[in-house]
Amino acid sequence: MTNNSESKLKILLEILKVSTRLGLTSFGGPVAHLGYFHEEYIRRRKWLDEKGYADLVALCQFLPGPASSQVGIGIGVMRAGVLGGIVSFIGFTLPSVIVLILFALLFHTMGFNDTGWIKGLKIVAVVVVAHAILGMAKNLTPDIQRKTIALFAIVITLLWQTAFTQVGVILFAAFIGYLLYRDHSYEKETTQMQFPISRRFAVICLTLFFGLLIALPLLREVTNLNWVALFDSFYRSGSLVFGGGHVVLPLLEREFVPTGWLSEEEFLAGYGMAQAVPGPLFTFAAYIGAVINGWKGGLLATVAIFLPAFLLIVGTLPFWNSLRQNPKIKGALMGVNAAVVGILISAFYHPIWTTSILSAIDFAFATVLFSMLVHWKLPPWVIVATGAIGGFLLSLLS
């Protein structure tokens, strides 16, 4: 019994060590994170085989929430159960959470709002999202049907800018994808994956996911407590996002800026800063929470926005073997992914472009940063540093 406990503790410490190193070094967004995971977990440590990793990534792309974080949680779960998933999440997420909370506190106390380097970080956000759009559009809208779904998503989300509009667009796109691609031919799946989670526990997690999604808005109305409202807003945003961190931007923006919890400038400055840190972009929630209610708000926001992802990945892993062989589900997912591209383009226009590119020199600077990122293949932290320094220099010229 003691040997088993020591062995389990050793495995958990190893997961924490590896995931923390990834959390400190994984720059570049969700796609880059999956590459880092593959190198560390699959090639170096062989915790999972190639086919198993591909299947896990496919599941996380199917679910709402931060795909790369869910993959990390899933690997931790398969390695050491639910506790392994928690440890993996903490290691990968905590470094960027700490940095963004500190930035939020400094932003408030030192009054960075009008400094030029904040303007530079806004332009960095333009560049990063533009790059994400190009990559996602190429992969997720290869045919005219999916391009049309994306166009529909752009028009609707630009004309009616509410969180409910985005949910409606995603559901409609899933239905259209189901109709268009339900008979699409797929490679026959043959391998079965094993997960150390019972189906009963998985059902409890899924029930909790949907229960909180329904109960939190009701509790918010009844109590009028600020922390309940905060938790509800972040939990809902984490529950309804398909496509990863960049797509959570419009949901969070429309949840917190119009209500006056933070200004447009504070929001975009934090989003730019979030590009400068490694780890998942969803940790941007820690910055928003800290701006609103200090470090306690930052930690509350982090738990709330990642909780849906954790409940969903743990709740669906035991059922994935049967789900991944259903072509109708895959067809619906193809429609959802196309709509995500449209939602991202809509968010790129507003608020990112409309509040960041205000002159010809802003656009010129953005094209330089874009070339550095896309054509010269420079690391993201170099782009962020150049954006901050360039924004400061531009403010001296104006």
From TrEMBL:
<dbReference type="Pfam" id="PF02417">
    <property type="entry name" value="Chromate_transp"/>
</dbReference>
<dbReference type="InterPro" id="IPR014047">
    <property type="entry name" value="Chr_Tranpt_l_chain"/>
</dbReference>
<feature type="transmembrane region" description="Helical">
    <location>
        <begin position="149"/>
        <end position="181"/>
    </location>
</feature>
<feature type="transmembrane region" description="Helical">
    <location>
        <begin position="83"/>
        <end position="108"/>
    </location>
</feature>
<feature type="transmembrane region" description="Helical">
    <location>
        <begin position="298"/>
        <end position="320"/>
    </location>
</feature>
<keyword id="KW-1003">Cell membrane</keyword>
<feature type="transmembrane region" description="Helical">
    <location>
        <begin position="201"/>
        <end position="219"/>
    </location>
</feature>
<keyword id="KW-0812">Transmembrane</keyword>
<keyword id="KW-0472">Membrane</keyword>
<keyword id="KW-1133">Transmembrane helix</keyword>
<protein>
    <submittedName>
        <fullName>Chromate transporter</fullName>
    </submittedName>
</protein>
<feature type="transmembrane region" description="Helical">
    <location>
        <begin position="273"/>
        <end position="292"/>
    </location>
</feature>
<dbReference type="InterPro" id="IPR003370">
    <property type="entry name" value="Chromate_transpt"/>
</dbReference>
<comment type="similarity">
    <text>Belongs to the chromate ion transporter (CHR) (TC 2.A.51) family.</text>
</comment>
<feature type="transmembrane region" description="Helical">
    <location>
        <begin position="332"/>
        <end position="350"/>
    </location>
</feature>
<feature type="transmembrane region" description="Helical">
    <location>
        <begin position="120"/>
        <end position="137"/>
    </location>
</feature>
<feature type="transmembrane region" description="Helical">
    <location>
        <begin position="381"/>
        <end position="397"/>
    </location>
</feature>
